[in-house]
Every structure is written in structure tokens, then in C-alpha cells.
Amino acid sequence: MIRKGLLAILITFALAAPVLASSGSSSKPLAGTYPIILSHGLFGWGENSGGIISIVNYWGGTDDYLRSQGATVFAPGKTAANSNEVRAQELKAAILTYAAATNYTGKFHILGHSQGGLDSRYMVSNLGLSGRTATLTTLNTPHYGSPIADIVKTVLPSWIQPFVASVVETLVKLVYGGTNQQNALAALASLSKEGLTAFNGYTPNKSGVKYFSYGSSITIPDLIQHPLMGILHPACGAGGLFQGQGFTNDGLVPLSSQKWGTWKGGPSYGIFTTGIDHLQVSNTLRSGSLWYDVEGFYMNMASNMKANQ
Fold first, then answer.
1. Is-contact 218 230, C-beta < 8 A?
2. 3-class state of residue 83 by DSSP
3. pTM, two decimal places
4. Percentage, residues of the chain above pLDDT 90
5. Cα dist from 223 to 233, 239, 272, whole Å
6. 3-class secondary structure, 211
7. Do the beta carbons of residue 203 and residue 301 sit within 8 Å?
8. E strands of 215-267, at which residues?
9. Cβ atoms within 10 A of the Cβ of 177, count?
10. N or C: which end of the chain has fewer CB atoms below 10 A?
11. What DSSP string runs through 161-198?
């Protein structure tokens, strides 16, 4: 009980101030924007997460940048590895806690990266948050599945999958801390083509909510600019071709799978940048800052939210 009370106090002080600031900072471009909720992806974390991972920022400082421009931003943590449905319940609880702590009764804008876009969609469509949501923006989200998830399911025999999942879950608990129950197999199923086909059937868009999507891809999988995603890129491309999703991808998600609602494209970058990969687009661990105008890209997304509230 003490821990929950302290968390509520921290949320109040951390978030109430930006609400007041955004309402009084009329000279800032994002002043007057509904609060923006940042929903992280698989193996992601939030500003209220614990464990070793919490010493770094999942969003690479883009949350603080948007705040500096007049926006109110909340980036809650969820279970690192679990189904879209479980994570959606956690996201809803975090948003309602935020609203209660700040006495906010209005609507929100939601920006979900990767699986964070899927749990956000489920929350809005099936958990009663459509009336509190103005826009739902997804970023490099696998709306029609990730070939990498299907490759993992195919390569690992069914008898060994629980063991591998147990190892992954143990490592996640060590790095992320907390008491949330991890479920790597549920996460894997939620990101497969079969899982997303079913998911889309029972997660329709809600009227009154405006849906936008942004995305990116790797043009050349060089390991200097894409040290991790460059390794996965060829496999994702081959799997995408096999599944009818095309070769172009960001290392984890085919470009065709990233499109949902109104497609808005991706970040601009120079001729010496070989595309923007799955982690760089969210600036996770500040991995995108060297390769494109991260702040400009996030300002564009936030400005689109404000224009559609």
C-alpha cells in the first residue's frame, strides 16, 4: 500500500506540472494539445519502470523534447513481454491512474511504437477508452504480423519453446525488475501473422477516434548504422516475401504491415543514411539521433495530433 501511495504521489508531481505548463505556455507550438500517452513496444519500458533498464530512456529523450514544446506527456511502463490484451489492461490502468492523479477528465492522444500500437488499439476498441481517445498514432507497428515472430515459431520446435520462453522471462525479470508476470510465448503469438489476422477481426477501429500510422525501413542493411536490425533485415525480408508482405522492412516489421488508418510516411534523412530501423524510429537508447532529425519527426507527429483533436 505504501508503494502504491508513493507511486501516486510521484505521478501527481511529475505530471500535474506539465498540465499546468502546457495550458499557460501559449507561445509553444504544442501548447493546448491533449495529453500524449507514449506506449512502448515489446521489451520496452516506461518512465515509472524499475530495474536496471530504468537508468536509460526508452524514448531517447523525445518525451522531454515534446514537453519542452508545450505538450503534456506520460510514458507509462507495461509488462515487457506479454500479449496485446494483457498489456492493454495495464496501459488502461496506467492512464486512469494518471487521469485521477491530475484530475484530468478530457481526451488523450496515444502514440504506440511497435507492439505498443497493438495494445493501444485493443485498449481503445475493447476496453472502453474510445471516448477518452482523440487520436491513435502507431509507429512501426506490425498490424499484419512480423515475419520474425513466425520464423522463431517455425525454427523452434514446440517442445523447446516453453524452455526458451522461461529463459527469456527470467532474463527480463532480472533486467526490468518488478512483479509483472512475463509471458514470452503469448507475446510471440500476438505478433505472428496468424495472431494478427485474428486480432484485427476482434479489434476494429472505433468511430470518433482518428487513426494514423507512421513507419520506416532499412534501405541497405549495413551494420554500422543498423548493428542489430541489419542482421535481422534479410530474414525479415525473406519472410515478408513468403508471407506476401513484401521485402522492404525495418529489421522486424515489413513496411506494408506498418500501415493502419491514415498512412503518414516516415522521417526524412540524408543521402548517407541507409534508412531508419525499428529501434532508431523510436530513438530507443538514442539510436536514431545520429541518423535523422528525431525532434523534427516527433514534432510532426505531435502537430498532427493537435490538428486533429
1. yes
2. coil
3. 0.90
4. 84
5. 11, 20, 14
6. strand
7. no
8. 262-263
9. 15
10. N
11. HHHHHHHHHHHHHHHH-SS----HHHHHHHHSHHHHHH
Q: Per residue in 50-60, pLDDT tens?
A: 888 888 999 99
The predicted model gives 32-49 an average pLDDT of: 95
Mean pLDDT of 273-281: 98
* Residue ranges of domains in the chain, CATH in brackets: 36-307 (3.40.50.1820)
**What is the C-alpha separation between 42 and 183, in angstroms, rounded?**
11
**Positive or negative torsion for Cα 57, 62, 65, 70:** negative
Cell digits of residue 28: 509553444
Task: Assess whether pLDDT exceeds 60 at residue 19.
Answer: no
| pLDDT of the residue at 26 | 62
In this prediction, residue 99 carries a pLDDT of 97
Query: Positive or negative, the Cα torsion across 153, 155, 156, 157?
Result: positive
Distances (CA, A) of 218 to 229, 248, 258, 263, 269: 9, 7, 14, 18, 12
Q: Are 70 and 172 in contact (CB under 8 A)?
A: no
Helical ranges in 72-114 per DSSP H: 84-102
Contacts of 212 (CB under 8 A, 6+ apart): 135, 136, 137, 138, 261, 262, 263, 264, 301, 304, 308
SS3 assignment, position 77: coil
Strands 36-39 and 133-139: unpaired
Length reported for the chain: 309
The whole-angstrom distance between residue 281's C-alpha and the CA centroid of its chain comes to 10
